Amino acid sequence: MNETFNIYCDESCHLENDGQRAMVLGAVWCPEAKRLEIVQRLREIKTRHKLPRDFEIKWTKVSSSKLQFYLDCIDYFFDDDDLHFRALVVTDKGKLDHLRYRQSHDDWYYKMYFSMLKTIFEPDAGYHVYIDIKDTMGHEKVTKLHDVLANNAYDFSRKVIRRVQRIQSHEAEQLQLADLLIGALSYFHRGLDSSEAKLRLIERIRERSYYSLKQNTLLRESKFNLFLWDGSNGA
């Protein structure tokens, strides 16, 4: 039987008129068979730092008092070969011109989601895609996203992209890792610098990934894959 992977998706500053310059879509993925092992490792890190096992890893919770905990979470991500990350950064939403390309913001959003995920999908594997329920994507949009992903991947029988569903972030530590990594990229690309702890985390990501976070990685980079979309092609 083909291997199954779980993909945990999150997003930051994705609304059209939220006043934020940069937008990030991203995903952490791992083999489904390794899901519980990864959860256990992350909970052990929480216990080591005297945090409850159900403590939620979140970028908004990063502070100087919990800096070492979050550094350990980042290090664990880079040390575990079963964990992978892919992000698409829209560097300047001010360049969007939906009228020119005859599309709605939702149409464009689905294109960006597929652009973010397409390099993860392999035709001989199966995928369960999980999306943080806190986001603006309701049931109808999730169904539409599944249609878009499957059609663009020529997966009309849904053998590859088997499931797209919303979950609560507290249900999946992998989704919490996605929130942390996406939050770091969003903070960096919006040019924010008010939190020394957050800047330290961003620097650790740069050190461990060997990337500046300012440019695209190679398309087949499997650990920390980054694509900066500049709006030049509209899609």
Task: Give the key terms.
235 residues; alpha/beta; Nucleotidyltransferase, domain 5; six-stranded mixed beta sheet; 6 helices; 36% helix; 19% strand
Short overview:
The protein has 235 residues and is an alpha/beta fold. It has helices at 35-48, 67-79, 105-117, 139-152, 173-189, 196-209; strands at residues 4-12, 23-31, 84-90, 126-132, 161-167, 224-229. A six-stranded mixed sheet has the order 5-4-1-2-3-6, sandwiched between helices.
Q: What would you note in describing this structure?
A:
- There is one protein chain.
- With 235 residues, this protein is of the alpha/beta class.
- It has a single domain (4-229), classed as 2-Layer Sandwich (Nucleotidyltransferase, domain 5).
- Helices cover 36% and strands 19% of the residues.
- The protein has 6 helices and 6 strands, in the order ββααβαβαβααβ.
- A 6-stranded mixed β-sheet has the order 5-4-1-2-3-6, with helices on both faces.
- Strand 4, helix 4 and strand 5 (161-167) form a beta-alpha-beta unit.
- Helix 1 (35-48) packs antiparallel against helix 2, helix 3 crosses helix 4 and helix 5 (173-189) crosses helix 6.
Tell me the overall shape. Answer: globular
In which order are the strands of the major sheet placed? 5-4-1-2-3-6
Distance between termini? 35 Å
The proportion of residues in beta strands is: 15-25%
| Count of the domains | 1
CATH topology: Nucleotidyltransferase, domain 5
CATH superfamily: Ribonuclease H-like superfamily/Ribonuclease H
H/I helix tally: 6
- Order of secondary-structure elements: EEHHEHEHEHHE
Largest sheet: number of strands, sense, barrel closure:
6 strands, mixed
- pLDDT under 50 segments (min length 5)? none
Integer-rounded radius of gyration:
17 Å
Mean pLDDT: 89
Q: CATH class, anyone?
A: Alpha Beta
Query: What's the count of strands?
Result: 6
Structural class of the helices, strands and pairings?
alpha/beta
CATH architecture: 2-Layer Sandwich
| Fraction of residues in helix | 25-40%
